[in-house]
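Hello, quick one for you while I still have it in my head. A protein chain has come my way and I'm curious about its shape. I'm sending you its amino acid sequence along with the backbone structure tokens. I'd be grateful if you could look everything over and explain what you see. Here's the protein in full, and shout if anything looks odd to you:
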Amino acid sequence: MGSFQLEDFVAGWIGGAASVIVGHPLDTVKARLQAGQGYGNTLNCILTVYRNESVAGFFKGMSFPLASIAVYSSVTFGVFSNTKRFISQQRYGDSNHAPAFSDLLAASMVAGVVSVGIGSPVDLIKIRLQMQTQTFAKANINLKHRVIGFPAYRGPIHCVSSIRAGAMLLRDVPGYCLYFIPYAFLCEWITPEGAISPTPSSVWMAGGIAGAISWGTATPMDVVKSRLQADGVYLNKYKGVIDCISQSYHSEGLKVFVRGITVNAVRGFPMSAAMFLGYELSRKALRGEQAATNP
């Protein structure tokens, strides 16, 4: 068998879907905190969303990322795993050879670059739908071409047609390096000596810790990304990345760039634990079926 394996893409879809279901409520809280809507702190944001929009408010905008995860997560995990095997094949003559740090770094960077092109539209639409916290009437914004009293976007398709500029996933390349690399080392470290493969508990723990590390360290760029993506729901405030950083700093100080770091890290653990556990278990199951069909 060559180094390319299709089951990595399928397993990535399953793991990604699991992570969206687990993490979307906290993702909604994170997006609203970082966009500067005056919620104050995480607890106040949660209480406000629940009081004004009930439980459904935490799942706003989930249908689109859940549906599109088949493309985003499967491609990201598939590209990472297959790139890692390709590098091992080229360097060591064996696609299953244990990767060195530099191999993991290269594979993570490739996955990050690919994710920018695949994931930016998905993330942008999700953010815009999540930020529909009030009607135009409540926002007191005089937009004559919109219907007063209704949300800006009726759904993902309307959102796509209304957005004129793509969002920037500035965190993704370093973010994936701090995602896959800690996972690989932690999984190897936690796995009992002599085990053929990592146990589910090892995968869950390593994936959760890797997610908390990745999302925590990516928070400053995630704040900028969220503000740029939320910009334009009702009006355009920022001219670009530098202007967003400058305005945010002058109006709220350095603390704005760590806004949501707690919810990011907390959310990152269960999301990534579910992602990696779903991915690893699905991949093992798919390989077992393949082995039974093609001995």
User: Anything to note?
Assistant: The CA atoms of residues 174 and 275 lie 19 Å apart. Confidence is low (pLDDT under 50) at residues 134-149, 160-164, 289-295.
